[in-house]
From TrEMBL, chain A:
<keyword id="KW-0472">Membrane</keyword>
<dbReference type="GO" id="GO:0045332">
    <property type="term" value="P:phospholipid translocation"/>
</dbReference>
<protein>
    <recommendedName>
        <fullName>Cell cycle control protein</fullName>
    </recommendedName>
</protein>
<comment type="similarity">
    <text>Belongs to the CDC50/LEM3 family.</text>
</comment>
<dbReference type="GO" id="GO:0005783">
    <property type="term" value="C:endoplasmic reticulum"/>
</dbReference>
<keyword id="KW-0812">Transmembrane</keyword>
<feature type="transmembrane region" description="Helical">
    <location>
        <begin position="322"/>
        <end position="343"/>
    </location>
</feature>
<dbReference type="GO" id="GO:0005886">
    <property type="term" value="C:plasma membrane"/>
</dbReference>
<dbReference type="InterPro" id="IPR005045">
    <property type="entry name" value="CDC50/LEM3_fam"/>
</dbReference>
Automatic annotation (TrEMBL), chain B:
<keyword id="KW-1133">Transmembrane helix</keyword>
<feature type="transmembrane region" description="Helical">
    <location>
        <begin position="856"/>
        <end position="878"/>
    </location>
</feature>
<dbReference type="GO" id="GO:0000287">
    <property type="term" value="F:magnesium ion binding"/>
</dbReference>
<feature type="binding site">
    <location>
        <position position="268"/>
    </location>
    <ligand>
        <name>ATP</name>
    </ligand>
</feature>
<dbReference type="GO" id="GO:0005524">
    <property type="term" value="F:ATP binding"/>
</dbReference>
<feature type="binding site">
    <location>
        <position position="269"/>
    </location>
    <ligand>
        <name>ATP</name>
    </ligand>
</feature>
<keyword id="KW-1278">Translocase</keyword>
<keyword id="KW-0067">ATP-binding</keyword>
<protein>
    <recommendedName>
        <fullName>Phospholipid-transporting ATPase</fullName>
        <ecNumber>7.6.2.1</ecNumber>
    </recommendedName>
</protein>
Amino acid sequence: MGKVKANAGPLARRPDNSAFKQQRLPAWSPMLTAQTVLPFFYGMATVCVLLGVWLLVTVQNTHELKVDYTHAGSCDKCFEKRKDRANANQSCNCTVVFNIENTFKGDVFFYYGLINFHQNLRQYMDSRDDGQMIGRNKNLKNPSSYCEPFMKDKNGLPIAPCGAVANSMFNDSFTLVYHSAASRQVVPLFRKGITWYTDKNVKFRNPQVENKTLTLAQVFEGTGQPLYWQKPVYDLDPWDRNNNGFINEDLIVWMREAAFPNFKKLYGVLNRAIEPFTEGLPAGNYSVDISYNFPVEYFQGRKEVVLSTVSWFGGQNNFLPIAYLVTGCLILLLAVILTAVWWKFAL
Amino acid sequence: MNVRVGDIIKLENNHFVAADILLLSSSEPYGLCYIETAELDGETNLKVRQALTVTSDLGADVAKLADFNGEVICEPPNNKLDKFTGTLYWRDNKYPLDNEKMLLRGCVLRNTDWCFGMVIFAGLQTKLMQNCGRTKFKRTSIDKLMNTLVLWIFGFLVCMGVILAIGNTIWEQKVGRTFSVYLLWDEPIRNNNVVFSGFLTFWSYIIILNTMVPISLYVSVEVIRLGHSYFINWDRKMYYIQKDTPAEARTTTLNEELGQVEFIFSDKTGTLTQNIMVFNKCSINGKSYGTIMDSTNFSFNPLSDRKFKFHDSSLVEAIKMEEPSVQEFFRLLSLCHTVMPEEKNEGDLVYQAQSPDEGALVTAARNFGFVFRSRTPETVTLYEMGIAVNYQLLAILDFNNVRKRMSVIVRNPAGHIKLYCKGADTIIFDRLDPSNQFAGEGLRTLALAYKDLDENVLEEWMKRLLNASTVIENREEGLADLYEEIETGLMLLGATAVEDKLQEGVPETIACLTLANIKIWVLTGDKLETAMNIGYSCNMLRDDMNEVFIISGHSVSEPELEQVLLETACLCKTVICCRVTPMQKAQVVELVKTNKMAVTLAIGDGANDVSMIKTAHIGVGISGQEGMQAVLASDYSFAQFRYLQRLLLVHGRWSYFRMCNFLFYFFYKNFAFTLVHFWFGFFCGFSAQTVYDQWFITLFNIVYTSLPVLAMGLFDQDVNEANSHRYPSLYRPGQLNLLFNKRQFFLCTLQGMGTSFLLFFIPYGAFCLVVRDDGSHISDQQAFAVIISTSLVIVVSVQIGLDTYYWTAVNHVFVWGSLAVYFAILFAMHSDGLFSILPSHFPFIGTARNCLTQKSVWLVIMLTTVACVMPGLAVRFLKTDLYPTLTDKTITEQVPQTCD
């Protein structure tokens, strides 16, 4: 280790007198004194409590309504019907009614929620091919082996989109109806613009072909539809041609796997251009017409519809304000204890 | 180049010797040849080797050398550099071989144009190679603790795996089966074999949770130790300007143990003292010289050494009066030694002595008119009061540690045969009148004696000597017996006293180390009185002390008394062991090491300290007078004993403190990082789904969090060096092993678990139902991963900030830099570009952008950070406030160090 330096002379091996080598680098040494720690604790407590109060007030001004329709109202018969897999191809429609007491002011979001559905199982989450969904032709016809056993259909055709995630896509559809005193009016919902920009424009692309005149059906020729789907991927949205294939927004929303078994996913956003919804959702009676396709009875799941407005920090979220308040109070308590101890012992 | 045993090879001046060879002939008269053994033992003085007379006659005649057909029978290869026994059979004669006829591999030929030799050992069998890698591997207690803890963590890992596997089994039984409509592929589940699923889950979780046992821990620990070693090497305050010797950390594995030393075993000579011998007293024929304080004029002697001082002119008068006993006294000094003279210019004599006291004695004789001028293997030339006198050298009876004396047998020009003997006074006095005149003054005393020998007796003895020296087995003992036999009936000439001055700062250092509760035992080969005197002069002994234990090496032998010895010694404040052999030194160290469970440090400078240095936990070598063997065997070396204080109280203390803080933080960080997977297991059906992005898992330990903790481990200082010296008791926590032990490990595990719990459940509570401000959801797994990993990186960065006492610029750069690098890499990994190149490897496209622009995400990160950090802060404050350690008190009192 003892390096012999090049410079000769009587003190050739004398170490350099640099601050670094002599461990004398100028440094800042913060200390935990009562004068710094106690004010910091009180300050933190104040910040947390104030934030908590502010968030709580904000949350009070948001609205959320959940309607569990698993076997509510006329959906009971559909629930029974879906118990038998043989009935999978028969359609079943049902309706649930509910009442909104106070107007939902501002933008209103329509979600579907699933309880006890595990989108976060490792094998489930892995069972997808992002290369296929970004529109790579190679992967379209030759999906990743991660998709097994949802890679090829029984005819040996590659499935598009392959994998368990896409295969289990939620396929109930909803029509929200407002029952005013005068009439029955379908609530207009935007069914697009419900995904992240990056998902819609980067992560999911339809396969690119040189011949631009081909229809989407032709592009997907030679692929099979997922086993549990009733229609192929290029035909998901019968009303909007541009919302089909891998860039179908419902598919994109579904493909963003939820972290926990209870989750909700965005279905639509209220179109506020039309009366009487310019202010939001007016109070009154509503019903949801449901095309009930998604079976949940196998895994004791529940399905629900969620209507919600949002604040600057997201949807109705009571956890955050309460957590802030609790944390703030605990810190305050700690601060008081510390002060007492310091007062008694250190002074 | 294919040197084989039995080859005869030629060596030239200034060349390295290629193998262990038997010297056959050389360019110098009498088959002499000079070598430097610095590479072997570090001694830089020239040594002489001599070929057998019969072989030196071969000269440079290649034909004769080629015909040489001698046979050598010798000992098997071993690592003893100073011993060789063998016999040469040639032309029906046998000749004894010893170390004096060997050139060992690694030596350098000096002042000799050429020499021929026969290869005895080559390659791995050479003594140099036999000495390689034989040192015991030393490990620190922290190292051992770390290994234990890593095993514990493995156990913990297996427990976690088992818990999660059981969870998986139950989950698959209760929930997973009903969910199987979406998980068709799961063979074992379809067959209802949930136990097999659990088994697979177990291994999956072992793989996922393996980051609890960080490989980077070992790498980081080594880097930190290397850094600390460099700081020792670079320390100007341990650099000895007179000798241009910096301190040197010769190993990089023991640094933190320097902060835990409880016992120091110190050699005396050359360690506490300077080992610069000054001849300052002598007693000739019962008359003492050197007690009067006047200066002596040596102008009568043109060959005198100007630097030599002696404070009694009556001795010069005596020599001028030609008193026979005084003359005989100095004649003995100039004849009985192994010094090599070097005379570069006429009258400019330089003595190459292997031991400094021998040099001092020969120099003294030189100044008093008995100048040792030159030697050949068979003669010694003296200038006695200016007249050249040739003595025939008949035999040299070597010095060794057991005999503690040496003798020469010479024939003077008048034909009288005399045996001159000098040796340790007790050894000589055993046969003479007891006289203890100098011992009371803390000097090294050698007694000088002579004996007239009869021609016939000598002849008969020489025959037996020749016989004994050709024996291979037990040659040593045989020779010793013969020597013993002839060294009897000696006549005392007088005694010399050589003073060995105490090194600078030794009493202060010892006082300071004692205050640090380090027990210092002096182990010396010297005799009781000398040792006690040194004890007094370096403050280890005082008259008011009554707990002193002084033991002589003769006393220690019985194993059952070892315990008694140890207990008694530990009751005492001061322990001095004198008259101990090198082996006994090592045994004492071993005794304390095994029985007291304490960290021991041995410090010494000579070859006799090597075994003790190797035995102790930490060996320190003084790079001083007596060669380099101690330094070569040591772990740390420096030039002065007083640097030991700085090595222990500053470097050792810091190293220990830094290493402990480093370990605490490192384990904490990895628990906080990894256990999040455990909590997530309860929500994802124990399916071994990871919480984080795979890239984050890869980079967390090596990129995002490695440098700040490394900076802390390298640069942190709780108490500055001035205060470390001022309050030696700050050293106590290290001895008590307080800063990192199993309890501390448990605490950091707890802290890590708590942090991981909060890290997981606060975002869980906030995000399981949250949406973005544009309504789209961010409760998906990828967003969750980004939120938790960001919180984690911020929390551990804040924590390292709180754990750092000494924020240098490097710390700032590393902490802030790591955070910046985290965000830079995060956004890069989630960028469109990387995704379009390798979609399956970067599936997190856009997640960072979509999450980190949300206010709610930052609210959650902030809440998590506050919740994770505040409790630890409060506990720390309470501890320093309620139960402040001396360290805490010192920290609060010390003013920030100014940089000068």
